[in-house]
Amino acid sequence: MNAVRQIADKARRQLGWLVRDRFPGRVVVRDVHGVRMQLPWSHRLPDYTSGESIYGRNLMELAEALAGREDAPLHVLDVGANVGDTALMVLHAADARVLCVEADPDYLPWLHRNVDGDDRVAVVESLLAAETGTATVQAVRAGGTTRFEEVDEGGSGLSTVSADQLRADHPDFANLRLVKSDTDGYDVVLVPAVARTWSASRPVLFFEYDLELSRLAGNDPLAVWKHLADLGYEDVAVWHGGGWALGRTTVHAVAAQTGPLEERVGRRSRNYWDVAVAHHDDPVGREVLAALVSGMLASG
């Protein structure tokens, strides 16, 4: 009976999405984990966080724990800020300031709706990339998220900003302590670049680790661990994309533990991880990860 109910619920949800996708500009106000925000009706975030879902709470708990160990507001970089949901939830959970980076012209108006007027938030309307300039890209949007594909023609020209330029333009975020990145496949390239630029403050790195999307973007998802190891990062906390903790590991061991992700590549219901990585010389970050995620990640 439960299986029948689950199938029926899934069918109703997908039918609802079909209807809502036809009216993407309709404004709705939703409460997400106690945070009120304005969203396009088509956005999936309220569905992912409804009921007893813990989706997204891991980042809130990480920000709260880090902020509790700081003498000043926690400085956060939000790469792929979307509609500002991460910024709002972090600010709800912690004494913080957030630098939001977002390039999608479809979501920028929603980001401004949600954060404009809050002096704890700064918005950069650019695509984080290897170099500052302009990129010709095509936006692939689905259910409230955007993946950018580089194209030779037929795309849109979006301004880009490098990590180095971003830091230079925002010296008040020099003491960056938490990085969140959700860029649908580019995280494995961008996160090491940000970590290198802000090496002096050794921020904790929280990002979406998706093997399939990384490869679609032309990036090697396994290479990120060597890059982070070379920068002195060591401890890794892993959550399922749905928000529940899977265990802790290290940057040296994790590449050999991605078997469950590989098994789902190419399937309709593939898996991805949320991961947080702390520097070897960041005892606070390492202690916070150990407190939030108990136990070790299973092998293979």
Automatic annotation (TrEMBL):
Domain Methyltransferase FkbM positions: 78-234
Highest classification ranks of the organism: Bacteria, Bacillati, Actinomycetota, Actinomycetes, Propionibacteriales
Signal sequence annotation: none
Protein name per Swiss-Prot or TrEMBL: Methyltransferase FkbM domain-containing protein
Entries under InterPro entries matching the protein: FkbM_mtfrase, SAM-dependent_MTase, SAM-dependent_MTases_sf
Superkingdom classification of source: Bacteria
